[in-house]
From TrEMBL:
InterPro entries: SGF29, SGF29_tudor-like_dom, Tudor_SGF29_rpt1. GO terms for cellular component: SAGA complex. It comes from Oryzias melastigma. Residues 149-295 form the SGF29 C-terminal domain. This is SAGA complex associated factor 29. Keywords: Coiled coil.
Length: 295
């Protein structure tokens, strides 16, 4: 089965799950209304009789079951979305590999910088939100939580890569993993900026994986950067990282486009004295070598 066919099937299944969610929500509305009316009667009568206690216990039991059923459907829908995104990424990587040009092929047009910046912003905005079960801790690569020591980034993953530049200095850039050699413990990565397209072979200590999930400030605040924490940030309209300080951590989940930085491009920064978690998207108002930035 082709990737396009599989994606079409998954989209159909996702549509059905969305319909089921709405149906489940509509069924539960009547019970929630009964709970509200029962509380209003209790306030009017200014008493809590055994009758009301028994009635509310039954209503809340039903409401809890309804909420769990809706939650189950939503988690299945999230799994479908993750599977669709995975297939789309596999298709993108396959298309990129197939573009290996022969001598007779015309040169491929380089992606304009503005288009690249838009795609990176869209990628950051659509990073999935980690939604764990009650009591479940966020995993590595969720928000500010770094990857485990033995983690190996996959082909196509975005990473921060420390490379040498023309004048001999070193710089952190945004790159895409091409391959990893277990025998040499080295990555091959491509500079994400096609205008200066270059492939680098780097050791693991020069690679920092970017997160796979956004952290929810309301349920997983421990997975967020703290105020005044030293970070690396993508300089506006570039793919290079610069030092910055967190000014204001997020306090709620935003489902609308943000004017400043998404929390998705988060990596681990290595310093001489300690290891810090760092942010990879910087507010356009935060120019300079070391400025304040918000997640």
């Amino acid at each position: 089965m082709s990737a396009d066919t599989k994606i079409a099937e998954l989209l159909t299944e996702l549509h059905q799950l969305i319909k089921q969610t709405q149906e489940e929500r509509s069924r539960s509305e009547h019970n929630l209304l009964n709970i509200q009316k029962t509380h209003e009667r209790m306030q009017t009568e200014n008493k809590t009789s055994p009758y009301y206690r028994t009635k509310l216990r039954g209503l809340y039991t039903t409401a809890k079951a309804d909420a769990e059923a809706e939650c189950s459907i939503l988690r299945r829908a999230l799994d479908k979305i993750a599977e669709i995104k995975s297939l789309q990424e596999e298709r993108r990587i396959a298309a990129k590999s197939a573009r290996v040009q022969s001598d007779n092929d015309p040169p491929r047009k380089t992606m304009r910088r503005g288009v690249l910046m838009t795609l990176l912003q869209q990628s950051a905005m659509t990073l999935p939100l980690w939604i764990g079960k009650p009591g479940e801790s966020p995993p590595p690569l969720c928000g500010a939580i770094p990857a485990s020591s033995d983690y190996v980034a996959k082909q196509g993953d975005k990473v921060a890569a420390r490379v040498k530049v023309v004048d001999g200095d070193e710089q952190w850039i945004l790159a895409e993993v091409v391959s990893y050699s277990h025998s040499t413990n080295k990555y091959e990565v491509d500079d994400i900026d096609e205008e200066g397209k270059e492939r680098h072979t780097l050791s693991r200590r020069r690679i920092i994986p970017l997160p796979q999930w956004k952290a929810n400030p309301e349920t997983d605040p421990e997975a967020l950067f703290s105020k005044d924490q030293l970070v690396l940030a993508l300089y506006p309209q570039t793919t290079c990282f610069y030092r910055a300080l967190i000014h204001t951590p997020p306090h709620r989940v935003s489902h609308a486009p943000q004017a400043s930085n998404p929390t998705s491009s988060v990596v681990q920064c290595q310093t001489r004295t300690r290891t810090l978690l760092v942010l990879c998207q910087k507010s356009s108002s935060s120019f300079g070598s070391e400025k304040n930035t918000s997640e």
